[in-house]
Amino acid sequence: MLNGGWLAISGLFALGYFSGTIPFGLVLTRLFGLGDLRSIGSGNIGATNALRTGNKLLAALTLAGDVLKGTVPVLIGWQFGEYPAAAAGLGAFLGHLFPVWLGFKGGKGVATYIGILLGFAPIGVAVFAVVWLAMAAVFRYSSLAALAATLVVPLAYLALGNRSAALLSGLLTLIVYVKHRPNIERLLAGTEGKIGAKG
């Protein structure tokens, strides 16, 4: 039997999914009186697009919410074992990307990715942060920084001997790349929006 059992694994996956579907960026933008976040910038509901409203507090709160909706289910999952924790993280990630409440059209998942790392194996957050900050400082593209950071994290876990974290983060990274395909195309075309740009 898998660590935690199938009942715990499926239950934590469901918990993670519904946690992930909470659209903090969309809700907070409306609370701030800034309308529908999906009509701003890239149309994404995450923190990067929230920053394009010009409201840094809104972007910070969106980031915090999207991180925590990945962390909390994973921490709950750990009470039942490693596999339930991983299932909760995967569920939260898929919930953020494909929320049932928004017609399965969600965010890109980077903040929730960080939240999952924070709950599952926190050293990955430090690795992510170093790579993201370095890439963002040099190139000023949030998407490029995220793509580089998510690529390095699974490799770092492998180097540290944490195979479970490497497998989970590797799967999440693959999904991140699929979701960022339009960003990759814009990066190659030189039309991707830079950090801090409005509209």
What does this structure look like?
This protein is mainly α and 199 residues long. It contains 10 helices and no strands. Helix 1 (5-20) runs antiparallel to helix 4 (56-78), helix 5 runs antiparallel to helix 6 and helix 6 packs antiparallel against helix 7. The mean pLDDT is 92.
Structural shape: globular
**How much of the sequence is in beta strands?**
under 5%
Question: How many helices does DSSP assign?
Answer: 10
Largest sheet: number of strands, sense, barrel closure: none
Beta strands, count: 0
* Amino-to-carboxy terminus distance: 51 Å
Low-confidence sequence ranges: none
Query: In percent, how helical is the residue content?
Result: over 70%
Question: What's this entry about, in short?
Answer:
By secondary structure, this protein is mainly α. It is about 70% helix and about 0% strand.
Topology:
Layout: H1 5-20, H2 24-31, H3 47-51, H4 56-78, H5 82-97, H6 110-120, H7 123-139, H8 142-160, H9 163-179, H10 181-189
Helix pairs in contact: 1-4, 1-5, 2-4, 4-5, 4-6, 5-6, 5-9, 6-7, 6-9, 7-8, 8-9
